Amino acid sequence: MDLALVSRVxxxxxxxxxxxxxxxxxxxxxxxHYPPFPPDMPALLTGVDSVDLALQIKKMLLAVYPREHEIMxxxxxxxxxxxxxxxxxFDRLSATPSTCLYIPSLGEGTSFESFAEVVAxxxxxxxxxxxxKQTHQTLRTHLLEEAYxxxxxxxxxxxxxxxxxxxxxxxxxxxxxxIATETNxxxxxxxxxxxxxxxxxxxxxxxxDVELNGVEGVLQNWEKIKEKERKENGVGEKEKxxxxxxxxxxxxxxQALEYQDRAARVGFDWPEVEGVLDKVREEIExxxxxxxxxxxxxxxxxxxxxxxxxxRWRKVDAESALRGTNMKFKKRFGYxxxxxxxxxxxxxxxxxxxxxxxxxxxxxxxx
Length: 367
Prior knowledge:
By secondary structure, the protein is α+β, with helices and mostly antiparallel strands. It folds into 5 domains: 3-103, 2-Layer Sandwich (Methyltransferase, Cobalt-precorrin-4 Transmethylase, Domain 2), CATH 3.30.950; 112-201, MazG-like (Helix Hairpins, Orthogonal Bundle), CATH 1.10.287; 204-238; 252-315, MazG-like (Helix Hairpins), CATH 1.10.287.1080; 319-364. It contains 14 helices and 5 strands. The protein has helices at 3-13, 51-61, 112-123, 129-133, 140-155, 159-182, 188-201, 204-207, 214-233, 252-265, 273-289, 293-313, 318-342, 352-364; strands spanning 22-25, 43-46, 70-75, 78-83, 100-103. A 5-stranded mixed beta sheet has the order 1-2-5-3-4, with helices on one face. A hairpin with a 2-residue loop joins strand 3 (70-75) and strand 4 (78-83). 13% of the residues are buried.
């Protein structure tokens, strides 16, 4: 660490060096896409010696810091302060090996480490009685609830809602990892290391020298890698099959889509969408011919399954499509209910024709 350089930088900036500081050589960040330091600590980048390097760092910082975050470029005894989004590296200063970029803290609670500390504190002896009593099993329903609330925000394209729900979902993950740490099962670091290794291993076309053609090539290679992993982890006849890794607790439409996706990656699929459409017609005819409730249930299941396949061919997520239709039905039916109240009556007193008229009015109003 060049303490003399650090001292000169803060002399130029005319404030006392912070008690905590991340010090990095700027060149080490030249190919990075995400800052490798916690944003709740200030950082000093040394050796910002070119426009290209400075602009690359700016792009990297924007992955975490807002455009209005102020940063400070220091060259010799001169400095300038700019908002990150407006940062023009060397319009007034020179690019030299001693040019530095100071990034002030984004504020308390903006790093993963600080959040993990908060969660660990909740579980500590001086923490929260409710959090202290939780186990993996007691948190299961909360995890499921938060996942569905997150999906709702995503379906509604609600940015503020997604930001909040992603946070709630992250809390469930970190809290479970903290419980595992306390019971010597695994740590948060091992959770992150596991998914890090898996992503790198399954993307040799990004992190290695494998060349693949398009999305289909990526998915096919992904399945080959997973098949190899299953063989390495399997034991003789008990080796897992292609579909065994799909969670049984998934919603039925999502589970059907995942089954079909995985089968298609190894070539088990219709060659053209017309085959899927023919199958839809075939299943409808079989429903008409069903003789009892068991046959009707079986044929309806087949129809649902092939409709999911049709959605997959049309690049539509069946679960999201049905949830969207459910929300649309709820809004239109609510409009019918309100219409009945405005007319001084109840839904149960209205004829089907009167309710249909209000329903069509809701459609014309864009609901």
